[in-house]
């Protein structure tokens, strides 16, 4: 799964830490999502979407092999 | 995310403070037959039959075993400062790896350790799942926080 979390974060000028605090996760979690190592739960994906005022599909996108 | 089965964060420190002295006591008790005399308790009738276990049992090894157990449980199950779903994933992965490695080690111990020496395998094997879990979980957490700095 691809994601554009970094782009959205840049749009709002949040650091990884600020974003992490906003949705109640650790910085490690944001970092591992951005680097594609971790696929977040639906709840977390929706929280991220709400924070950036977009839909979950705007941030997360399926890839061929998913 | 709510995580069940976890203890408050400060239990980790308490865990280490309990674990280390009791581990040392346990090693002395297991390998050097060290005993505290004040831990002698009469637990059986001990009717003098030579085939009977002695009436008095020394509880040094019991004390050490329980101390090590409680220490390890506290360290392993103390909640992280931010205990989120990613941390739970790391925990789950670490637990799977710990159980697997534990039984691989046991497999080789069964093959290569014989006779009365096997009692040491039993004793250590009581704790290896927790020890391997803690080692793997700590290592992966360190790796993740190093990645943050770079």
Task: Describe this structure in a few short sentences.
With 66 residues, chain A is mostly helical. Chain A has helices spanning 5-12, 16-23, 27-34, 42-52, 56-59, and strands spanning 2-3, 60-61.
Helices and strands in order:
The complex is a heterodimer of chains A (66) and B (150).
Chain A lengths: L1 E2 L1 H8 L3 H8 L3 H8 L7 H11 L3 H4 E2 L5
Antiparallel strand pairs in A: 1-2
Chain B lengths: L10 H22 L7 E3 L13 E3 L1 H18 L7 H28 L5 H32 L1
Helix pairs in contact in B: 1-2, 2-4, 3-4
Mean pLDDT level of chain A: 93
The total strand number of chain B stands at 2
Q: Order of strands in the sheet with the most strands of chain A?
A: 1-2
The proportion of residues in beta strands of chain B is under 5%
Oligomer: heterodimer
Relative helix content of chain A: 55-70%
So how many helices of chain B? Answer: 4
Taking all Cα atoms into account, the compactness measure Rg of chain A is 11 Å
Which class do the helix and strand fractions of chain B yield?
A: mainly alpha
Main beta-sheet strand count, sense and barrel state of chain B: 2 strands, antiparallel
Short key terms for the protein model shown above:
heterodimer, A: 66 residues, mainly alpha, two-stranded antiparallel sheet, 5 helices, 59% helix, globular, B: 150 residues, two-stranded antiparallel ribbon, 2 strands, 4% strand, elongated
Structure commentary:
The complex is a heterodimer of chains A (66) and B (150). Chain A is mainly alpha-helical and 66 residues long. In chain A, 59% of the residues lie in helices and 6% in strands. Chain A has a two-stranded antiparallel sheet with strand order 1-2. Chain A is globular. Chain B has 150 residues and is mostly helical. Chain B has helices at 11-32, 60-77, 85-112, 118-149; strands spanning 40-42, 56-58. The longest helix of chain B is centred in the C-terminal third of the chain and has 32 residues, at 118-149. Classes of the chains: A mainly alpha (66), B mainly alpha (150). The interface between A and B is medium-sized, with 16 and 14 residues.
